[in-house]
Design a protein that fits this description.
alpha+beta; single chain; 5 strands; 2 domains; Beta Polymerase, domain 2
Length: about 240
């Protein structure tokens, strides 16, 4: 049994033990791609009959954490549509790239086809109000980052984090690309824009390691230039 079969077998045991009435299941995340460590959690999407309820659970099975994305066959289509709206597409990627574990009546295959169609469309575009608010927030974070002395490290690091997150949010939206949080933020950012994404990440690293904010601020300003420039006076939140 290879490394990839291990997590898949474990996930299937989890599903059959906890959800004996499941009609479909798929293993996602790093475990499905053979990149999981012994301590990595399992991301498992489970399809249940319409008589059950959709929910999200985190459990521990056989000593390993498992995050369960549970939907009924009646709810899965709407859940996938909603997942496109949050611009991260976590559920969509599980269904698209995951390793199938169980599909009794073809419900899993139909859900995977729908997920792939939504991924092809890309995330929902930002509204004009969301673009303006994003420009204003990134401008504020960038200005404060530049103004904060390197001796006030707590504030400087907090501002660097906010600058990176807002810049990543806007840059991925500019490219109509999926975004992410946690470890998926740099992955999605580099996928959307390898050059400017790396400039943001390298700038963030320079703040953390050297207290030097110039590179991150310059990269953030490049992002702002792509979407209409910095926004300060004149911003109105309705």
């Amino acid at each position: 049994m290879n490394d990839q079969d291990g997590p898949a077998s474990e996930a299937l045991l989890l599903v059959t033990h906890r959800f004996p009435h499941a009609v479909g299941a798929i293993l996602g995340g790093s475990a499905a791609q053979g990149r999981a460590s012994a301590s990595s959690d399992l991301d498992v999407a489970v399809l249940l009959p319409d008589s059950d309820t959709s929910r999200r659970e985190v459990i521990r099975h056989a000593g390993r954490l498992a995050e369960l994305f549970i939907h009924t066959t009646a709810d899965i289509q709407q859940a996938l549509e909603h997942n496109r709206g949050n611009r991260r597409g976590t559920l969509l990627f599980i269904y698209d790239q995951g390793q199938p574990l169980l599909d009794l009546h073809g419900d899993l295959d139909r859900a995977r086809t729908h997920a792939r169609a939504l991924l092809t469309k890309g995330p929902i575009a930002l509204t004009p109000a969301e673009w303006e608010r994003g420009r204003y927030l990134l401008t504020c974070f960038m200005d404060d980052l530049i103004d904060t002395p390197s001796t006030i490290r707590y504030e400087q690091l907090a501002l660097a984090d906010h600058t990176l997150r807002e810049a990543a949010h806007l840059l991925t939206a500019h490219h109509q690309a999926w975004t992410g949080i946690g470890k998926w933020l740099p992955r999605r950012l580099l996928s959307a824009d390898p050059a400017l994404g790396r400039a943001l990440l390298n700038g963030h690293q320079r703040v953390a390691e050297r207290g030097d904010t110039a590179s991150l601020a310059a990269a953030a300003e490049q992002v702002l230039d792509l979407i209409g420039g910095p926004l300060r006076e004149g911003y109105i939140q309705r």
